[in-house]
Design goal:
The complex is a heterodimer. By secondary structure, chain A is α/β, with parallel strands linked by helices. Helix content of chain A is about 45%, strand content about 20%. A seven-stranded mixed sheet of chain B has the order 1-7-6-2-5-4-3. Classes of the chains: A alpha/beta, B alpha/beta. Chains A and B meet through helix 2, helix 5 and helix 7 of A and strand 3 of B.
Chain lengths: ~350, ~160
């Protein structure tokens, strides 16, 4: 394939949590290759994300994944215009594997280095679907994050709401565990919920008026209490009904708060990203809610919603345009503010 | 090892209780939190964080494993729920244990052998109501003294 000279091509690397990923992205919106060394099989064994396994595996995977991204894209490092990497937030040990690999490649091939915020990456995955229209609103929902982010202009992220306790994906995971479902719990509950009745009244934490924050801890406790009480009384609750009722509570608050913020800030576009964006119940509710609104709803496909490096390449495009390059002193940051 | 028992009746009271402990904390302190799902471990940590003057929202570290916050002292909030003990030594936890901050470790019973000897172990017993029973196991004289001070504080039921 030929590389257009006026559009930059970026090699992007992501190792913030449990995925080693590399991608080649052109112009922030075209995926040349996108490789994720999914570690989900080894995690399933342990019933969760096992960080030191991840850390060790990142080290083992990183060269293979970068080579494969180049090979699949039929490109060479010599054809790259920059190297981008997730600098945080995440696990420092995991992040450092990617940061050091990116530095080594940038140094040896004399390429500019770009440090990207993981959540900016998730949000910018929307670029692969369509061009941004600002102001825009992003709902980031995953195992580790539940945030509402306002984008008044390109590359400027304002967190207007976040979870005060559990992330939405985490609540799914913990409820799945209480129901004895295998890891990962989210897709299992989503599937069960399609077959169940929403006949259990679980609470929804709306929090104080006007707040765009979320809270799922109370809902989690309510599910635990309901299961416990039913067990004590010898009642048999149908897991699909628990799943459907739980999912209704989660989806309702996510959709409603997103809608309210979208209207308040008069946005042109709403994007839903992060692993939980794959949830069928959430997708459908979002589509229903926004179909009659004068704003675009963008939900990238699952492969671009879970952790991947293409999204890092998309976010790096903005920094490339601004020539905001990192130095060789680039570090990994466990805790990093968006914006 | 001395054990102390406290009962709180609401989430607000848990926060007040945690704040009282948080106000007494020093650099290098280690507190472990155990108790089932929904016991209130993260909620309790919010009280510690408030006493350490952490201004950012403290939320669950289950997926990210470790979250760091700036305050009067740095707060290292960990959740080792997903960690197998034989692998815990590769996580670099010692760096946090020996750091300048306060470590609060949820589900610490999974990695007991890696924990420093001097620590405050807290077990939160969940009740179907909002009531919670706190069992504080003081490992070391400093923690014993701290727990005795808590007991003398008449605003905490026990």
């Amino acid at each position: 394939m030929s590389i257009k000279e006026n559009i930059e091509t970026i090699l992007a690397i992501e190792t913030s949590c449990d995925e080693t990923a590399a991608a080649v992205v052109r112009g922030g919106n075209t995926i040349i290759s996108n490789v994720v060394a999914s570690q989900i099989e080894s995690h399933r064994r342990f019933g969760g994300v096992v960080p030191e396994v991840a850390s060790r595996q990142h080290t083992e995977n990183i060269t293979i994944v970068v080579d494969e991204a180049l090979e699949k894209g039929e490109v060479t490092l010599g054809q790259m215009d920059a190297v981008a990497v997730t600098k945080g937030p995440g696990l420092v040990g995991a992040l450092l594997v990617g940061v050091n690999a990116a530095k080594a490649i940038a140094f040896s091939h004399d390429l500019p280095l770009i440090g990207v915020h993981h959540i900016a990456g998730h949000i910018e995955a929307a670029r692969f679907q369509q061009e941004w229209k600002y102001p825009a609103l992003a709902l980031v929902v995953s195992g580790g994050h539940t945030e509402l982010v306002l984008l008044r202009e390109e590359g400027v992220y304002e967190v207007i709401g976040e979870t005060r306790d559990d992330a939405a994906g985490e609540a799914y995971d913990k409820v799945a565990r209480a129901l004895g479902l295998p890891y990962p719990g989210g897709p299992q509950i989503d599937r069960l919920a399609q077959k169940g009745q929403t006949n259990i009244d679980f609470p929804i934490a709306w929090l104080e008026e006007g707040s765009y924050d979320f809270s799922f801890s109370g809902l989690k406790s309510a599910v635990m209490n309901t299961l416990h009480n039913a067990n004590q009384r010898g009642e048999n609750l149908l897991p699909e009904d628990v799943a459907a009722s739980f999912q209704r509570s989660v989806v309702q608050v996510l959709v409603e708060k997103t809608k309210r913020a979208a209207v308040e800030y008069n946005v042109q576009q709403v994007v839903v990203v992060g692993g939980v964006a794959a949830n069928q119940g959430l997708r459908k509710a979002m589509e229903d809610q926004f179909k009659n609104e004068n704003m675009d709803l963008v939900i990238p496909p699952l492969s671009l919603c879970t952790d991947n490096a293409a999204m890092i390449g998309a976010a790096a495009h903005i920094l490339w345009k601004k020539k905001e390059f990192a130095t060789m002193a680039l570090n990994a940051y466990a805790d990093l503010d968006l914006g | 090892m001395a054990t102390f028992h406290f009962i709180v009746t609401s989430p607000e009271e848990t926060l007040r209780f945690a704040k009282k402990i948080g106000e007494k904390l020093q650099s290098g302190d280690i507190i472990t939190l155990d108790g089932g799902l929904g016991a209130g471990k993260t909620h309790f940590t919010k009280g510690i964080a408030a006493a350490l003057h952490v201004t950012k929202t403290v939320n669950s570290p289950t997926f990210t494993i470790i979250k760091e916050y700036d305050g009067r002292l740095p707060l290292y909030h960990m959740d080792v729920y997903r960690i197998e003990s034989e692998e815990a030594d590769e996580l670099g936890l010692e760096e946090y244990f020996e750091g300048k901050g306060v470590c609060v470790i949820e589900w610490a019973e999974k990695i007991t052998e890696f924990l420093p000897k001097e620590r405050l172990e807290i077990y939160i017993e969940r009740h179907p109501t909002e009531e919670r029973h706190f069992y504080l196991h003081a490992h070391g004289t400093r923690w014993k003294k701290l727990c005795e001070e808590l007991e003398e504080d008449e605003n905490i039921s026990n």
